[in-house]
Specification:
Length: about 450
């Protein structure tokens, strides 16, 4: 946190806003889909001491899948072992605080005032609320993207050899989450439209090494295959699940759209370089194709939006390491904020433990078909499932059958034929598919979940 001593309480509004957002987020933080499958894989890696071939907890064929995110898997598994679902929720809130602080810092570095930065933080938090509240592996991209924006804007203002920090950032990020691809695209936009003309050799070298840095994962060159699979999986092709396009009839997507428009309008009031607008256009296109990309659009627009909201932008704020008093105060506040999601205990879990135990006891050694988030909770509990995230690890026909099952489509019967135990939510499309398929007996029911076994 920057030292507020240079001015009269210059961070009081922004700091208070970040803290208020953290409390609000902490009260609703929930472990969601696209999280616990990494915990299950991380547990396997820690237990066996090696990276498995494919998805060991799934029965559908997945051999040969390039596992790129081993670091994320191990980190999430360790956090889960130490604190369970509440520990994951605390991690999310801490990352949220760090991310919003870096976003605010970027605004102050552009000369925005405390009074202008605070409402921009609110806009970012409102538009990206699902990314801040729901615990997914995406949390590992929030801080790296904020750092990337800071680095590129500092380099645009005053080019230096610090641009080479991009390489270790990408190396770390590529082992954590796939949004590193968007980060590399944004960095490439800066290099081409801002730096290449004045420093061609250096810019070309940085760009080339950064691309190579993407491959610095346990999968090595097969990392390319991993990303091709992610972008070409069945869910992405259908625009469903985490790849769903924005729908303005959904409250959270409407919030995202309103926040994005407001930030872009404010950004237009400040004179921004070409590379930022090119990057914004690219991220806007990405957001239109999948709503989950909207968080990056908001984060990149935040700093110039705060500057545009400032009547008389000042000089870039000099950031200094806080003294002992402010360091202790920041640590105390962070611990207090982390206590909010921790206090919610089991309410942060996607599925109650009692339901997971019921399914596990009913299934025994049999393979289970279940929707999100149940399927990932079962994988963590040691239950063998048919298919789960990451869907791109499996064959295209199996991906399609699983998505058809989730949609309640008749084509989903292919997934039912592969298992002897099915778990569905009461009244959901998959339950309708089970009811019309025949051959199933209700083996248990708890908290809105139903367990069916084959007759």
């Amino acid at each position: 946190m920057p030292d507020p001593s240079p001015g009269p309480r210059p961070w009081v509004l922004t700091g208070g806003t970040v803290a208020a957002v953290a409390v609000f987020v902490g009260l609703g933080t929930l472990v969601g889909a696209d999280c616990l499958w990494l915990v299950a894989l991380g547990d396997h890696i820690l237990r066996e001491g090696s990276v498995p071939d494919g998805i060991p907890f799934a029965a559908a064929a997945s051999a040969g899948w390039p596992n790129v995110l081993v670091l994320s898997e191990v980190l999430l598994a360790l956090i889960h072992r130490l604190g369970g679902a509440p520990g994951l929720a605390v991690t999310q809130v801490v990352v949220d605080v760090l991310t919003l602080t870096l976003v605010a810092l970027g605004a102050r570095r552009l000369g925005a005032t405390d009074r202008a930065t605070a409402p921009v933080v609110v806009l970012v938090a409102a538009g990206a609320i699902t990314s801040l509240v729901v615990v997914r592996v995406q949390l590992f991209s929030l801080v790296p993207f904020a750092l990337l924006a800071l680095l590129l804007r500092e380099e645009h203002r005053r080019p230096s050899r610090r641009i080479w920090l991009l390489v270790p950032l990408v190396v770390l990020w590529s082992n954590l989450h796939g949004a590193v691809l968007l980060g590399v695209v944004v960095a490439g936009t800066y290099l081409v439209f801002s730096r290449l003309r004045s420093r061609p050799l250096e810019s070309s070298a940085v760009g080339l090494v950064t691309l190579v840095a993407l491959l610095a994962t346990p999968a090595g060159p097969r990392t390319i295959q991993y990303y091709l699979g992610v972008m070409d999986n069945e869910a992405a092709a259908r625009g469903s699940e985490l790849w769903a396009r924005p729908d303005l009839t959904r409250p959270f997507d409407l919030l995202l759209a309103l926040a994005a428009v407001a930030l872009i309008v404010l950004m237009a009031r400040s004179r921004r370089p070409l590379w930022e607008w090119v990057a914004m256009i690219g991220l806007a296109v990405g957001t239109v194709t999948a709503a989950r990309h909207g968080v990056w659009l908001l984060m990149l627009a935040a700093a110039p939006a705060a500057r545009g909201l400032t009547r008389d932008p000042g000089r870039p704020e000099v950031v200094r390491w806080p003294g002992p008093r402010w360091s202790v105060a920041a640590a105390v506040v962070l611990v207090a904020l982390a206590a909010v999601p921790w206090s919610r205990g089991a309410h942060t879990a996607p599925v109650d433990d009692a339901v997971v135990k019921l399914v596990a006891g009913t299934a025994g050694q049999r393979v289970v078909l279940a929707p999100e988030p149940m399927v990932e909770s079962l994988a963590v509990a040691g239950v063998r499932v048919w298919l789960s995230d990451p869907v791109d690890a499996f064959g295209r026909s199996d991906q399609a059958a699983y998505l058809d099952f989730l949609e309640g489509s008749a084509a989903g019967r292919r997934a039912l034929d592969a298992v002897e135990v099915v778990v569905v939510e009461d009244g959901s499309p998959p339950e309708g598919l089970v009811d019309t398929s025949g051959g199933w007996t209700l083996g248990g029911e708890l908290e809105g979940w139903r367990v069916y076994t084959r007759r």
